[in-house]
Design goal:
By secondary structure, the protein is of the alpha+beta class. The protein has helices at about 95-100, 125-130, 165-175, 195-205, 275-290, and strands spanning about 45-50, 60-65, 70-75, 80-85, 110-115, 145-155, 160, 185, 210-215, 220-230, 235-245, 255-260, 265-270, 310, 315-320, 320-325, 330, 335-340. It is globular. Its EC number is 6.5.1.1.
């Protein structure tokens, strides 16, 4: 007797990321059809880090926003907000989702960055992270005060715009948003010399600037079509331990950080500033649940023996000024935790 075929699961894993697929071809049976199928997801274009802005008038400059990269998909059937890693976070940005619905009945994919602004109107990653909640139990928290600064348009009303040069995509984006000032806003381009702009941005305490080549199409990954120049270094590092604190037994003196060299994690220093007391206690509780159970630490280490090692699970965004001669972070300050669903890149050493 032959076995009956296995039935397919009825439920879909909602935590699984949506994958980017190759651009679908038009139906050969309808060669004159004018519309392009809307992609389920587009792998985002990323900016290459540069020490100085490139020369030439073929670049468009804007602020570098300090938040979470999002793609907003607007369709007749509804709105989806996807993270850089392809996870559906529509429920976590309700105001952005509502503003996206108001842009209908057009169909589009908007590329942008979700931020929370401080009292001076500057993006503050710590405020965004606090609004969303840390990784783990708070993963269902909503950032109701987040704003999406839109900087590109990937798809519009049946037309896949990835093969269109940036200057034209930008014009379409400006026409689409048309001065809107709600939870979705236009990331303004700034007509100024990039070096002068960088100096002013640094004086305002902002992270840096991003340049986009006006004549290039939308290409996923780091292709050099987009560049970023930072005033202050800010990168993601793996938390591999903590140094206990005698004055604050419920907290810690510092976090032990690591970066990748090839496939191996290596120690790049500690961070002991930037924490609020309540935040430190919550983080300590999380770390104690992740204690390292092996004899050898997760990274090669020469130093204090009282370090409490933890499983390399948490990713922290760290602001710092420079590197020391022996490869450690100088003047490091904690900004907040990154979520794995955000697909944050842990820093890679040369």
């Amino acid at each position: 007797m032959t076995k009956p075929p296995r039935s397919k699961p009825l439920l879909r894993d909602t935590e699984a990321p949506i994958r980017s697929k190759p651009r679908r071809q038009r139906n050969p049976a309808q060669p004159q059809l004018l519309f392009d199928p809307m992609p389920d997801r587009v792998e985002p274009a990323l900016a290459e880090l540069k020490a100085h802005p490139p020369n030439g008038d073929q670049w468009s400059w804007e602020l570098k926003w300090d938040g979470y990269r999002l793609a907003v998909h607007i369709e007749p059937t509804g709105v989806r907000i996807l993270t850089r890693g392809g996870h559906d976070w529509t429920h976590r940005f309700p105001d952005i989702a509502e503003a996206a619905r108001a842009l209908g009945p057009a169909t589009m994919i908007i590329d942008g960055e979700a931020v929370v602004l401080d009292e001076q109107g500057r993006p503050d990653f710590g405020l965004l992270q606090k609004s969303l909640g840390a990784s783990g139990k708070a993963a269902g928290r909503r950032a109701s005060d987040a704003i999406l600064y839109a900087f590109d348009l990937i798809y519009l009303d049946g037309h896949d715009l990835r093969s269109v040069e940036y200057r034209s995509r930008r014009h379409l984006l400006e026409d689409t948003l048309n001065g809107k000032d709600g939870a979705i806003r236009l990331s303004e381009t700034i007509d100024a010399d990039a070096n002068v702009l960088l100096e002013h941005v640094s004086g305002l305490g902002l992270e840096g600037i991003v340049g986009k080549h006006l004549d290039q199409p939308y290409r996923s990954g780091r292709t050099g079509d987009w560049v970023k120049v930072k005033c202050v270094e800010s990168e993601a590092f793996m938390v591999v331990g903590y140094e206990p604190s005698t004055p604050s037994p419920g907290g810690f003196a510092s976090l032990v950080l690591a970066a990748y060299r090839g496939d191996q994690l290596v120690h790049v220093g500690n961070v002991g500033t930037g924490f609020k007391e309540s935040e430190m206690i919550k983080l300590r509780n999380t770390l104690d649940k992740l204690r390292w159970k092996r004899k050898q630490p997760p990274v090669p280490f020469v130093g204090k023996s009282d370090i409490v090692w933890v499983e390399p699970t948490l990713i922290a965004e760290i602001e710092f000024r420079a590197w020391t001669g022996d490869g450690k972070l100088r003047h490091a300050s904690y900004k907040g935790l990154r979520e794995r669903q955000d697909n944050a890149d842990v820093y890679k050493l040369d």
